[in-house]
Each structure stands twice: as structure tokens, then as C-alpha cells.
Amino acid sequence: MKTRKFQEKGQALIVIALAVVILFGFAALAIDGSRAFSDRRNAQNAADTAALAAALAQVRGKSYTTAAQGRATSNSYTDGINGATVLVHLCSDTGVTCSGLPAGATPSEYIQVKIISVIPMTFARVIGWAQITNVVEAIAHVQSTSGTSSLPSGGMVSLSPNGTAYSGQGNFSVNVIGSGIFSNSNSNCSTSFGGNGTIQATSGVTIASGGTQCKSGNVTPPTPVPGSQVPYPPNFSIPAPTFTCSGSGSYNSSNKTFYPGNMGQVQLNGSGTYTFAPGNYCFSGGVSIDGNVNVVANDVNFRIANSPFQINGNSSFTCTNTLVYGASGSGIEFDGNATNTCTSITFYMQAGSVIWNGNIANKFTAPTSGPYKGLLIYMPYGNKSQLTINGNSGNQLTGSIIAVSSPITINGNSGSSGMNTAIIGYTIAVAGNSNTTINYNPAQQYNPPANPSIQFTQ
């Protein structure tokens, strides 16, 4: 009987095959795994920077989606290219889940950037892995702007820290509906009233602690109450306009139309309607409108330098979406007998006064959106020129009038019953036969935004 010998041929091939699989596994772990790990790290960095770029764009009023996509692309992750997907959403968007938000957070203030990347495998294919998918996300918080200001609220506010800050003389009438009168002075006769005037205010009269009220004649103002004095100058500023003019402006006499650009002095007299086409105008010699001229200026920015902006005679000024920037010169003076009507207008007077005289009626409404929302007239700290409403003007004004360093005077026989405004000045004086009624609505006033903040959340 012969003994059968076991055949060992072929066993080495099995061992070698197993060894090859194991070697490819180690290669996949070392090489493909490193690629996947490196991609995940790069994708996370790209998502982080994209989220911050989106938040910054949101603060600047630009497209946060475009900003995030652009930043991701600069870091080699373009949506739909090379297996990458870049998703940008507000955490309040339908179907979007943002984990880790603080308790009580407002989801609409958070921007999520999610990057999905697909990494094709090389050695891992041998063990059945054709690709690895990385999913990373980043969330940035954009702090919503909120109204903050060191200015006290009120229908009429005088900021002077001493002396007589608020006064009324003559046969004047003041009625502040929906708010009150505030005097920041802590001196004797902080408010002073004489003559036959009448003063009414829904919230009464408040005087900084230490100040007193003086009165004479038949005036019966409300009994004042003490309040906290605010620092002067207040921690309050509104950025000046930054628009520029390109090239030289022009005028077409056939259709009486001006076109944007740099211009010297413009003087309009006689009669007819003159139009300023939309755009930026920079006047180095001022603007004078006289006679029976009608001026139409829609979607324009005026920069006035060296000389005033004047309207006289029976001329009228009609506009919408207009900014008048008094960069230098003597300011604005509206006289005559006409009616000026503008919606969405702001007068920003870096220098010079604002004077309204005669029988002129100004119907001006501040913008309802944009950086100067609710701001009708602004005279910043350092401009000490007068802001005066004189004569028999019947004004209808909506929006805040803020003159930080300027004395404000309401004088003559002015009938200003349509003032949906807040009047804030260094001092305020009401005199003559003026009849001033302020219908104070905080929603129509300028509410300075706090500096927005950006925070990386995760």
C-alpha cells in the first residue's frame, strides 16, 4: 500500500494574494486615507472662510451667497465642479438644520456654509471603496443692527449742557403730540418762557437735574420733571456722503436738462421747467433758482461747495430719492412764495446754515430705507450755523431734524402743523407768532444703527 503525499503546490499563491490585499489596504489607509483627511481639513478651512465672507457681505448689504461661493471657489471648492457641492443658507431657511446654536438664538442671523466633496480612491478600490465623501459645515453669526444712541428721545430736544437751552417768547404755540420736550441744561432758567405762548406736550417737559424753569407773562408751561443729563457732545455720528462725480456735467438747452458730473455755478432764472437727469452732481459755485422756474430732480445726489443752494421768487423744487450734501459754503436758503415738494430726501449739512423764509411751504419726507432712513436734516457736531424756520411758511416735514451744535429757531408767523418729526438741536427757540405742532412717531425718525458684529460660531 502506497502512502499518499499531500500536494502543497498553489498555497503560496493564496498567501501572496492575501498579502497583496493587505498591502493595498495599508496603502489605501496611508495614501487614500491621508488624501481624504487632507481634503476634509482643506474643506473645513474653506467653509470657515466662506462663512465669514458671507457674514461680512451681509453686513455690507451685499449677496452673502455670492460672497460665500466666491470664497469657496478661491479655495478650490466650486459648486458642481470636480465633485464639490457648496451650499449656503440662512439657518432660518426651510429644510435647513443648524446644530449648536445658542439658546434663544434668532436663526435668521446665522449663515451656514456646507461643503460636500467627493474624493476618488486609488488603492482602496481593491478593497471595495471607490470614493470617500467629506461633509463639513461652518456657521457665522451676523449681529442684527439695532438702534442705539446717546441722544435722548423726544419730539423736541435741546442738547446744550448749560445756559438756556429751550426758550419760547411771544405769541407762540407749541404742541408735541406723542412725546415730550427735553432740556439737557442743568443751569438756572434751563427753559425760559415769556409772552402769551402756550406749551403742550404729551410726555411733559423734562429738565436735566439741577436745571430750573423760568417763566413770565401769561405762559403756562407744564411743570417740569428732573431727568438725567446726557454728555455733550453726544456719542453720536452719521457718516458723511461719499459719492463722487465723474467728468464734466452738461446742459442741453433744447430740453432744459442737466446731466451728471462736475459743474461750476448754476443759475436758473425766468420761467419754465428744468430737469436734472439721475446721477451725481458736484457744484463748485452753488445753485441759485429764481423767478418762476420749476426744477425737477429725481434720483440725484447734489454736492454743494463754496456757495449756497438758494431758491427764491416763485420758483419751486420737486424731487424724489434725493440727497443734498452741503460740503462747504454758506448752506441752504429757501425764500419766496412757492411750494417745494420732495419725498425720500436728506439734507446733510457738513457746513453752512439751513434757512426757510417767506411764504414758502416745504413738504419734505425723509427716506424710508437706506443709510439715512428717517433723516431729514443733519448738521453734525462742529457745524454751528443756524437752522431757522421763519416767515409764514406752512411746512409739512417727516423725519428727524438733528443739529448737534446748531441753534434752532422757529420764528415769525409760521404754521407748521404737519411736522411728523423730532427736532434736536444745541438750543431751540420758538418766537413770534409761530404755531408748531409736532406729531412724533418714532417709526418715522432716524434710528442710528449699532455697529454690526460678525462672530464665527462653529
Task: Tell me the number of helical segments per DSSP (H or I, 4 or more residues long).
Answer: 2
Oligomer: single chain
Largest sheet: 30 strands, mixed
Gyration radius, in Å: 34 Å
Strand content: 35-45%
Look at the helices and sheets and give the structural class: mainly beta
* Average pLDDT: 84
Q: What's the helical proportion of residues?
A: 10-25%
The poorly predicted ranges are none
Task: Characterize the overall form.
Answer: elongated
Alpha carbon gap, first and last residue: 80 Å
Number of strands: 34
How many domain units? 2
Could you explain how this protein is built, in words?
By secondary structure, this protein is mainly beta. It has two domains: 11-98 and 105-142, no CATH class; 156-444, no CATH class. The chain is built from two helices and 34 strands. It has helices at 11-59, 64-74; strands at 85-90, 110-120, 131-142, 156-158, 166-168, 173-177, 181-183, 191-193, 198-201, 205-208, 213-215, 225-227, 250-252, 257-259, 261-263, 266-268, 271-276, 279-283, 287-289, 292-304, 309-311, 316-326, 331-334, 339-349, 353-356, 361-365, 375-379, 387-389, 396-398, 400-410, 415-420, 423-430, 435-439, 454-456. The chain has a 30-stranded mixed sheet that branches. Strands 1-2-3-34 form a four-stranded antiparallel sheet, covered by helices on one side. The N and C termini lie far apart (80 Å).
